[in-house]
Specification:
Blueprint lengths: L3 E3 L2 E4 L2 E3 L2 H12 L4 H4 L3 E3 L2 E3 L8 E4 L10 H14 L7 E4 L6 H10 L15 E4 L2 H14 L5 H10 L2
């Protein structure tokens, strides 16, 4: 499958994607056996577009860099959920993800971790909204950073204990 890149994003199977991340979401849905038509890419509700609406069962918004809009993933997801509710889609789950996928297999792993089933229309936990995040990367980063510089008070306590004669 050939992925073409131009100044406005990526094109695969005649579909235009704004990011490489969105292409990986498309490839994952394709791996699940969905055709481009069944994926409902850029599904429009009023003046809003949703990244995917696979089989008309689960909405999926993927925004790995949500900071630029000034709101975090949770604020963004809640706002998108309100749009769906106001448009008569209150019973249909919304998946909001922000992980940086290297390939469709990472998408698959995370969706399995969160028990997201686009074919059945089900998600783990809250049936109306599911936030999919790769916390291992955040944990690994913080863990490594923690070893570079001790926590603010740990070294003070250790110094006090060592100075006791």
């Amino acid at each position: 499958m050939k992925i073409l890149r131009d100044d406005t994003g990526y094109v695969i199977w005649g579909e235009r994607f704004v990011s490489y991340q969105e292409v990986q979401c498309f490839r994952y849905l394709q791996w699940l056996g969905l055709t481009p038509k069944e994926m409902n890419h850029e599904y429009q509700i009023g003046r809003y577009n949703f990244d995917f609406f696979p089989l008309g069962k689960v909405f999926w918004e993927h925004h790995p860099i949500s900071i630029r809009s000034g709101e975090d993933l949770y604020q963004y997801g809640k706002r998108r959920r309100r749009v769906l509710n106001a448009s008569g889609y209150s019973k249909i789950p919304l998946v909001v993800s922000d992980s940086m996928f290297r390939d469709q297999w990472e998408v698959c792993d995370l969706m399995n971790d969160y028990e997201v089933d686009f074919k059945r229309g089900s998600v783990k936990g809250d049936p109306t909204i599911c936030f999919v995040r790769d916390y291992t990367r955040e944990y690994d980063f913080n863990y490594k950073e923690g070893w570079r510089s001790p926590a603010s008070h740990d070294h003070l306590l250790l110094d006090q204990l060592l100075s006791i004669d």
